Model the fold of this input.
Amino acid sequence: MRWPLRYQIMLPMAAVMLATVLAASGLSAYLAARRTRSHIEGQLRDIVRTLNGSSFPLTDAVLRQMRGLSGADFVLQRDDGRVVASSWRLDGAWAPPAADGATSWLEMRLGGRVHVQGSAYFHAVVRLERPTAFGGGRVLHIFYPERVYRRAWLEAVYPPLVLGAAGLVIVILVATVVGSRLVAPMSRLRGQVERIAHGDFSPLPLPRRDDEVRDLAGSVNRMAEMLARYEDQVRRTERLHTLGQLGAALAHQLRNAATGCRMALDLHRRECAASEDCESLDVATRQLAMIEQHLQRLLSLGPERPFRPERFDLTELVGRVVALVLPAAEHRGVTVDWQPPGPMPMVGDVVAIEQLAVNLLLNAVEAAAAVGGSQRGGYVGIHVRCKAPDRLVLTVEDNGPGPPRGMEDKLFDPLVTGKADGIGLGLAVARQVAAQHGGVIRWRRDQKTCFHAELPRNNREPTDAHAVGG
Done:
């Protein structure tokens, strides 16, 4: 059975307040009734005290005046039972009730109910202390009308009951409003969770009130953000896995062919003495080496290559990469600025770091080639510096147009590219290499597009840390 949260809040509050209001109202009504009875009895005692202390005879006219003051009827009776005076017009056959329970006026209390001339009264009997002034009458019967008593009782009890009922209505309304204000954001949270279940990870606007519901909404938003990142990571992994499966065989065959061509050129150079200083053969050899590098980059997205750390000089490695890429840059009209600093020794996977440098440099050359035909010309700058005793930074900058608008957050995703002939793998591999070494790759766009690869100087174990772009 469904038990809505609104009712879970409203009904217990209403039940508690109902019990509280009923108890308070009942107690107030009871006390009001007691006060009303005490007031009536006090008023009657004052009248009896006046009559008891008076020196004038008690006649019918006097008792009728007392009735006008108190609302009660009086009958004065002698000890032998004869009626001396009365506020009623009595016939000779009527006799008042027995006076066995007569008390003094100090102890007077309204007693049980009696009927006189068709009307109900509360009856009390008082024994007077000065009978000589009243024609020998010693017993005074007091008849207080029940309808007058009930009316006074209701007038005393009605206000607390009305206030209690009004309080109960107010409590129910407040509980309803509070329940609705709590259930409304909970309903929005439920809708947000359902959207998350269907793949929509857009954040939910936070409530204005700073309470537990706002904290819960913030937690749901953080969960959605984490799920969005996980989904992107899963999609990126699936792309890499698919690409590795589809391209591994083809890349392996092409790499074997390129290696065979390079070996054939080397054999030709050895057999033909005239070709030893042939620049075209050198260029062809370097281009085949670049093809092998590209194919190796594609193969690296397949089965993961073992991490092989060794000590090397980053400055020397970058110099080799610049020499490899320089012919392609000159062909595209791009100027490469490389001012080698001093030795920058580090420990890492040489092949992987070389891939990282080649990818960043080729990416910069291709971007700068877009302005190669202009008066200014394409420009690529490479810098290596020591950021900290244990950190080195490789910076590659170019004066190209920069990433297309809308792709800034996806530059490092595989198979995402803004180039017509690109496949979107260079930066993805570079990021993977940097993360494997416990480093990061960041980029920025000012007058130039700059990529900064920050790497630890001593990394002997691979890490699962993720690179950062932005």
In short: Confidence is low (pLDDT under 50) at residues 465-470.
